[in-house]
Structure prediction request, 420 residues.
Amino acid sequence: MPKRRCPRPQLVLLAFLLTACGGTGSATTGPATLDWYNFPDDSGALQQAADVCSRAAGGRYTIRYDKLPRTADGQRQQLVRRLAAHDAGVDIMGLDVTWAPEFAEAGWIREWTGAQKDEVTADTLPAALETATWKDRLYAAPYNSNTQLLWYRDDLTPTPPRTWTELLAQADALAKQGKPHYVEVQGAQYEGLTVWFNTLVSSAGGSVLTPDASAPALGPPAVTAAGVIRDLARSPAADPSLANQMEDQDRLALESGTAAFEVNYPFVYPAMKADRPDLFPHFRWAPYPAVTPDRPAAVTIGGIDLAVGAYGHHPDLAHEATLCLRNRDNQLVNALKGGLPPSLRSLYTAPELTDSYPFAADVLTALDNASLRPRTPAYQNVSIAIAHALSPPSAVDPERTVADLSGQIKDALGSKGLIP
Prediction:
């Protein structure tokens, strides 16, 4: 008997025929395959978590780790397109910490309730939970948190700077001595520039939006923040590639020996250990620079929240699998192999972590005092407006830039003139 083959479908029958032929996300017999879309992890930690949880499922499901594009914008674009088309193949997804309001408002992700919600909230950092919550409902499970520290070479500067003013002064002094002196920071026109600005505004005592997220707040703190960006960009501390620098380029600049400082995420620590064992003994960390001496920095929280897709065929299994993916053991591996800070508070004092993660206490302090990016379903538009207004950093005119940005954010909140 010849093998049964599906006929070439007409467009209107595509969804039906994909199901009949066992297409992505279809309800087939045997163990369910849960597709987990997340950022591309080069450390192997995410694939290890998928494998461990698949084995632990006892044959009821397997988790397939599907890699999204490398940039946050590309990741969001792919997920939005799939979910807008009601793609049943998106079972679990890794959301940037700014996406829960947008995805929840659109009905693309499922709420966490009951005992499963209790399991997510137990021991999880409050700021991380806040990123996963919209209108007092939990829509995602924090997978990892993230925050930035100041990383520096102690053979160049034994005493780390406490403020941005001190940081620029130390960089200038090193430049005059002909030593590596660049301060690496995310200055490209993308989400990293928005994060830099948001951290500076919050550290100056302000916010980007009003408390109800209906209008721009900005004001003097935003002018101060824009001034910090302008001052760095026009100083000897600025890498000539500042306007194109992202996190990984910043890491590579310090590893190459051309930079003395970087503000970056903890992934740079295992990378330096592996890539430059000769420089690693001099690689140190300190709190993120303050804007003013009397106020500690309020660093913008980062990380990934895991959400269950609204259109998958196995929502109960997807919730169960998500709890496994973000459990204590997997978060520990993610921190040690991938350098990504956990979202579980108890891990920050666990010897299994602190023995290889000596900056754990500094990360926890930063997360306990973290600021959040604007909480609005229109966040993507707001972020685009901020990054556009501040690019290139050397062209920033604090008063004028902030005034222009205020108008752009008003338009962004109304989805005027921007492509999300």
Remarks:
- The radius of gyration is 23 Å.
- Confidence is low (pLDDT under 50) at residues 1-27.
- The first helix runs from residue 14 to 20.
